[in-house]
Design goal:
It contains 12 helices and 10 strands. It is of the alpha/beta class. It has one domain. The chain has a 3-stranded mixed sheet. A 3-stranded parallel sheet has the order 5-2-8, sandwiched between helices. A hairpin with a 7-residue loop joins β9 and β10. α4 crosses α8. It is globular.
Length: 287
């Protein structure tokens, strides 16, 4: 079955049926990728300080969330008419984003691999806030086309990874909004900073950009409802630049960024993508 056929099937299904299929896909991945699952559980135990039994449950639920998120991503073009019903974006969070934009220095949305980012992006754009995000090309051309098709459907502006810094500079100078995934392993280019209590190489670009352009950094938190998996909430609780001393010291500022994301993960660990090798460059694959 080609990707195009699967996409067409998912888009004609009732939404809750599609989510059930997503959970099944997540379960299958959990079974098939058992070596990766073992590493995920080991990371979970070490980072959260939980027992093996709880770590297994967290990782299993993380795979179910991954399956549902993948299905939701594919279905986004046919879900846009109900995006307000499926994803809440409280007025207080919108006020924070408007306040950040009122400074006219551009905005850096600091986000992470939790719940379903693409749905959150669609909801924010639907509320009238254009977003720009970097597109990283995948190996499969069909996958690239699907990603671009979905993002175009809800109005995401794509930044080509070949000219990323030039485009980000342009957007921030025009008081636009750039999305930054802040929970990736920065490898040799990063600054050492603890993430969930473990040493991690952390990208410093978000703080450098805030310093260079005076841009506001707004953390974006989005979660899946425990009682209704079809419903999500996207929250923007604060502007990090307003914290005393933020931006003065690189290491301390990155610690603030990591701590914010770490708090989200501790609150809902089953929504984070434990499959990511967040600590590979510092602790190796066998963490």
């Amino acid at each position: 079955m080609t990707i195009n056929i699967l996409v067409k099937l998912l888009r004609i299904m009732p939404h809750r049926m599609a989510l059930c299929l997503g959970r099944i896909i997540g379960r299958i991945l959990h079974l098939v990728l058992w070596k990766k699952v073992d590493r995920c559980e080991a990371k979970c135990v070490k980072a959260l300080g939980v027992g093996v039994t709880l770590a297994r449950e967290i990782v299993r639920e993380s795979f179910l969330n991954l399956g549902m998120s993948a299905v939701e991503f594919v279905r986004l073009p046919v879900m846009l008419g109900k995006i307000e019903e499926l994803m809440s974006f409280p007025e207080e969070s919108q006020r924070v984003l408007r306040s950040a934009l009122s400074r006219e220095k551009g905005v850096l949305l600091m986000t992470s691999h939790m719940a379903n980012w693409e749905m959150a992006a669609a909801r924010v754009i639907h509320a009238g806030f254009p977003l720009h995000a970097v597109f990283t090309s995948q190996r499969e051309q069909e996958v690239n086309e699907l990603i671009l098709d979905v993002r175009n459907s809800f109005g995401m502006y794509v930044i080509d990874s070949d000219k990323v810094m030039r485009e980000i500079f342009r957007v921030l100078k025009a008081n636009g909004i750039v999305v930054i995934m802040q929970d990736l392993d920065a490898r040799r280019e990063g600054v050492m900073s603890e993430f969930l209590g473990l040493p991690a190489s952390t990208h410093d670009g978000i703080v450098k950009l805030a310093r260079k352009f005076g841009s506001a950094i707004v953390p974006v938190h989005y979660v899946r409802d425990k009682n209704n998996p079809a419903h999500h909430v996207v929250e923007m609780p604060e502007i990090l630049n307003d914290r005393p001393g933020f931006g003065d010291d690189m290491t301390e500022s990155l610690k603030v960024c990591n701590d914010v994301i770490g708090e989200w993960i501790r609150e809902r660990p089953e929504l984070w993508l434990w499959l990511m090798d967040r600590w590979e460059s510092t602790l190796g694959k066998n963490v």
